[in-house]
Amino acid sequence: MRPISLSIAGVVALGVLFASCTKEPLRNLTEEESRIYITNHDSTANFGAFKTFSISDSVAVISNNQLEKKEQSAIDVLFIQAIKNEMVARGYTLVNKDQDPDMGVNISRIYNSRTGIVDYGGYWGGYYDYYDPYYWGYPGYSYDFPSYYGIYQTTEAALSVDALDLKDANGTKTIKGIWNGLIRGSGIFDPSNVNSQVKALYDQSSYFKSNQ
User: Domains in the chain, ordered, with CATH?
Assistant: First the structure.
């Protein structure tokens, strides 16, 4: 597989991160600037030789590396249709999965959750260092608060699109992945962003087109 490539939007986002002089540059990014488009493909695959494709009629929901279910929610249907449109625009013909398509396309919504602990004791100590206990008539004293811990959880979401070589899978018992596109950032599952996101993902894969 070739090294991953980043879209212009992703490079701009990273550039803002490193170039900004503010303490929290991420606060200055719009949702669109926060999104990163990553693509990877098998350099030995001849994308022009593929003529037909089929796409899964549901989207896999993966949470912390575990497949939870497959869905056909409203946002899933929009992504499926947008990817169909891009594939057809690149010269591929949509067929049913029982018509021996050259390529198969899978879509996944990926969620990774992380849990952490915050020590609020450190916060209190740092905050009250600014106050002088002498005001209350206790010279030489300092403030002291008990340790207090809080638990937080964050969830990162992404959309993944996989193209699979079904044309050369017969007899090998192995289905080879030939292309992957990944979208990360804010607003991924906003319906108004679906078409532009899918287009941006495919636009940075100019080799992904049929010769027919």
Answer: 5-117+143-203 (3.30.160)
